[in-house]
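Continuing the batch. This is chain 6 of the set; chains 1 through 5 are on the previous pages. Same settings as before, nothing changed between runs. Recording input and output for traceability.
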Amino acid sequence: MPYPRAPYYMLGVIGIILIGFWPSYWAVVPSVPWQFHAHGAAASTWVLLVTAQSWTAQHKKQLQLHRTLGQASLFLFPFLIAGLAAIIDRQALDYLAGDPANLAYGPGFLTGTMVAMAAYVTVYYRALKYRRKVWVHAGYMLSTPLILFESPFSRAAAFVFPPFQVKSPADFSPILVSIESSEVLVLIFIAAVWWRVRDKARPFLVTAGFVVVEMLTMGLANDFPVLRQFDAAIGHLPGATIVLTGFAIGAATSWAGWQAGKRPTVPAAAALQPA
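Output for chain 6:
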């Protein structure tokens, strides 16, 4: 099976998530807004599901469980995208409320999250469409944790790397530096995967393209007044509308990907004809 070390890679991802989000989420769970719970629950469950899939894929006796987990992902994916939509809602509300970090980088956070949503939709759709091609399917599923890996990793790195630490309420530049640096590390990791397996790593290259777009949007979006206006406009929309729109996009992706990956139907008359 492809990527035999994938379970250990996924355990590393889980470790980074626990460390990176410990002070801002895990240690203060009762006091965080509901949008973070929506995203945190769905995203954490998704990572655990991909971890379980990566493990069961390595054991022939567990392939049926692997398929069952894959079918479960169809129902989880809409919640994953809805959780990202909830983060968009929270970010826009904080921008309207005058949160200093969001005033500095809010449009970049907003557009970066939207790019991440597009990445998840594209990658998961293709994982479903090519689910009968093990290298392609595995590559797309294993690349999903990389789409927003900068979020926990940049926070975790700030614990030990002073240039990533925000030391003054008047200077939030380390936030962007840590995010962009983390994205570069993701691209280096993908390059290493490609170097090891070459053409089999094409799914990771698709994800790399979205990571590059994330870097550009987060770095440049804050300089465009129209995106600041867009951020404010999102903040005036009902939160339920934003989240349900995300859920609908996720549900449509699950359905379309599953349909695209079905075996072609052979007409009955053609099946009866002699070879």
